[in-house]
């Protein structure tokens, strides 16, 4: 019988006007070290984002999120961060920063299926959040 695996996750937030500290959730990062997984699910609701800042560059937000996905997957062309070990990539991506895309604090949980877990978190925290 498979036991539950520990995982860490963070929510990715788009913060179009950093000085106002308003954001919408645009993604989830999930690291499951025992399964050697680093996963990302991203999606931008442009209307909700523009409600915070009508002048926000939605394409820039989407490009930055796709760069995060590439780093998680360790794709060629994802730069030196994409070449780091999985845990180092997760820690780099979840480091606190004052930027257009910001991570939430990291949370920990247990799961039997990390793919199902990230989809559930994405549905709950991004699609409806």
Q: Would you identify the regions where 5 or more consecutive residues have pLDDT less than 50?
A: none
Summed up, the helix count is 5
Form type: globular
Helical amount: 25-40%
What distance lies between the first and last C-alpha atoms, to the nearest angstrom? 34 Å
Quaternary state of the chains: single chain
- Domain count: 1
Main β sheet profile: 5 strands, antiparallel
How many beta strands in the DSSP annotation?
A: 5
Attribute tags:
129 residues, 5 strands, alpha+beta, 5 helices, 5-stranded antiparallel beta sheet
What does this entry look like structurally?
It is a single chain. With 129 residues, the protein is of the alpha+beta class. It has one domain (5-127). It contains five helices and five strands; from the N terminus they run βββααααββα. Strands 1, 2, 3, 4 and 5 form a five-stranded antiparallel beta sheet that branches. The chain starts with a strand and ends with a helix.
Structure described in brief:
This protein has 129 residues and is an alpha+beta fold.
């Amino acid at each position: 019988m498979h036991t539950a695996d520990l995982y860490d996750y963070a929510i990715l937030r788009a913060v179009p006007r950093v000085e106002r500290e308003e954001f919408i959730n645009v993604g989830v990062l999930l690291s499951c070290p025992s399964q050697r997984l680093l996963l990302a699910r991203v999606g931008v609701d442009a209307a909700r984002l523009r409600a915070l800042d009508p002048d926000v560059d939605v394409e820039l937000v989407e490009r930055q999120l796709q760069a995060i996905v590439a780093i998680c997957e360790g794709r060629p062309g994802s730069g030196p961060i994409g070449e780091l070990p999985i845990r180092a990539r997760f820690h780099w991506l979840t480091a606190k920063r004052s930027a257009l895309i910001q991570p939430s604090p990291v949370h920990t949980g247990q799961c039997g299926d990390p793919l199902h877990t990230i989809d559930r978190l994405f549905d709950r925290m991004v699609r409806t959040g």
